UniProtKB/TrEMBL annotation:
Family annotation (InterPro entries): Aminotrans_3 (IPR005814), Aminotrans_3_PPA_site (IPR049704), Dat (IPR004637), Ectoine_EctB (IPR012773), PyrdxlP-dep_Trfase (IPR015424), PyrdxlP-dep_Trfase_major (IPR015421), PyrdxlP-dep_Trfase_small (IPR015422)
Pfam families in the cross-refs: Aminotran_3 (PF00202)
Gene Ontology terms for molecular function: diaminobutyrate-2-oxoglutarate transaminase activity; diaminobutyrate-pyruvate transaminase activity; pyridoxal phosphate binding
Pathway connected to this protein: Amine and polyamine biosynthesis; ectoine biosynthesis; L-ectoine from L-aspartate 4-semialdehyde: step 1/3
Protein name (Swiss-Prot/TrEMBL): Diaminobutyrate--2-oxoglutarate transaminase
Organism for this UniProt entry: Novosphingobium resinovorum
Protein keywords: Aminotransferase, Plasmid, Pyridoxal phosphate, Transferase
Top EC class of this enzyme: transferase
GO biological process terms, semicolon-separated: ectoine biosynthetic process
Family the UniProt entry places it in: Belongs to the class-III pyridoxal-phosphate-dependent aminotransferase family.
């Protein structure tokens, strides 16, 4: 069993990328290697290097790269000339997915949702969700939350807090109010109370909302995890004021925070849920907007897209549901690995006076600044560990290891992270003034 990375020393020839690919590329700048093969938690470059992947396609690869069960299902489907593209026609692959999703995910959780197959990415699912909420309620305003991230198309981007992302829009981003997320003003201020006061005051300037759009754990915004009590308050406020509760589970769902949905066992049921990223199980584009049946007021073709419903993704998603989510042992294993990650990050944080963020297998450590976090991720890459940052100032080093990673490999990657944190934080600690020591 391979447990340790083996990074290569040689960067690739990037002339073709420099000549033809847009400057907008980002990950390749921080991780300058050319990858040609991937399996499980490992990425291999064209110089023979082996890298441990704690990025997992920003949580699009919760079951690792090229899981053999999912790969076999897809290869069999293609070999038998299964339908690839079908718009929204009925197909065997779609029927199998819907039945499996109903049997394995919805019915055991007591959920009743209609499934809307949107365009292939998460932002498409969010666009459909907010568009539906406006159609159902006849209102325009969406209440989103500070540090939220919901996508890069204009409607989803309007609901996103990050100034750098918003700045690329080129047009006003309107019809959204950004209210404080749980803990935004510290533990002493209940931001649900503040929102209730604003909604109840006819002179607050806050229009009646069509929807509240919230992540239970903010993936790009710093791994801020809302408490179940706060989320229940938000859901109750939505209902009281005639708005719909939309949970964006694009990054936090599909097991990343424990259950298949991030809101499980929290005492509320969203009106609409958005899913994408690891929904296909294998990194194939697949996004879904789930809605209460009574909210399904669309006219045929009123919201569509050429690539709504990827049959190859239906196949791998169905295989993933059967392979992982039909077996309670998988959920137990994810919880165990989440415990390992929590303990290791807490140990690092305690050693250096830092704090941790997140929930389940969606956790990180707050190192105080983007500069320090960048030093840490760069040092990790030099040792063969791929890992990224999160947060308003990129100050959170964020761990998104595959949910299926072997415990020993997870520990080995965390050893690399622990050493990198210590190396980056130690100079800062030495530079701090010594209290009570005469000059």
């Amino acid at each position: 069993m391979t447990k340790t990375p083996m990074p290569s020393a040689t960067a690739p020839d990037t002339k073709i990328y420099d000549r033809r690919e847009s400057r907008v590329r980002s990950y390749s700048r921080a991780m300058p290697r050319q990858f040609g093969k991937a399996q499980g938690p490992w990425l291999h470059d064209n110089e023979g290097g082996r890298y441990l992947d704690f990025l997992s396609g920003c949580s699009s690869l919760n079951y690792g790269h090229n899981h053999p069960v999912l790969k076999a299902a897809l290869m069999d489907y293609i070999a038998n000339d299964g339908v690839t593209h079908a718009l929204d026609l009925h197909t065997d692959a779609k029927a199998a997915f819907l039945r499996t999703f109903e049997d394995v995910i919805l019915e055991p959780r007591g959920l009743d949702y209609r499934a809307m197959f949107t365009g292939p990415t998460g932002t498409n699912a969010v666009e459909a969700a907010i568009k539906l909420a406006r159609k159902v309620t006849g209102r325009e305003l969406v209440v989103a939350f500070t540090n939220g991230f919901h996508g890069m198309t204009l409607g989803a981007l309007a609901c996103t807090g990050n100034a750098g992302k918003r700045g690329g829009a080129g047009v006003p981003l309107s019809h959204v109010s950004h209210e404080p997320f749980d803990g935004y003003y510290g533990s002493e201020v209940d931001t649900a109370d503040l929102l209730e006061q604003r909604l109840s005051d006819p002179s607050s300037g806050l229009d009646a909302p069509a929807a509240f759009l919230v992540e239970t754990v903010q993936g790009e915004g710093g791994l801020n995890a809302a408490s179940p009590a706060w989320l229940r308050r938000i859901a109750a406020l939505a209902k009281k004021h005639g708005a719909l509760m939309i949970v964006d589970d694009i990054q936090a769902g599909c097991g990343r925070t424990g259950g298949f949905f991030s809101f499980e066992n929290m005492g509320f049921t969203p009106d609409i849920v958005t899913l994408a990223k690891s929904l296909s199980g294998m990194g194939l584009p697949f996004a879904l907007t789930l809605m209460r049946p009574d909210l399904d007021v669309w006219s045929p073709g009123e919201h569509n897209g050429t690539f709504r419903g990827n049959n190859h993704a239906f196949v791998t998603a169905t295989a993933a549901l059967r392979e992982f989510w039909a077996d309670p042992a998988f959920i137990d294993a994810v919880a165990r690995r989440g415990g390992i990650l929590e303990r290791r990050l807490e140990r690092m944080a305690e050693r250096h006076g830092l704090t941790t963020r997140g929930r389940g297998m969606m956790r990180g450590i707050n190192v105080g600044s983007g500069e320090v976090a960048s030093q840490i991720t760069s040092a990790c890459f030099e040792e063969g560990l791929i890992i990224e940052t999160s947060g308003a100032h990129d100050e959170i080093v964020k761990v998104l290891a595959p949910l299926t990673i072997e415990d020993a490999v997870l520990e080995a990657g965390l050893d690399i992270l622990e050493e990198a944190v210590a190396a980056a934080i130690a100079p800062v600690e030495r530079a701090l003034p010594k209290i009570g020591v005469a000059a």
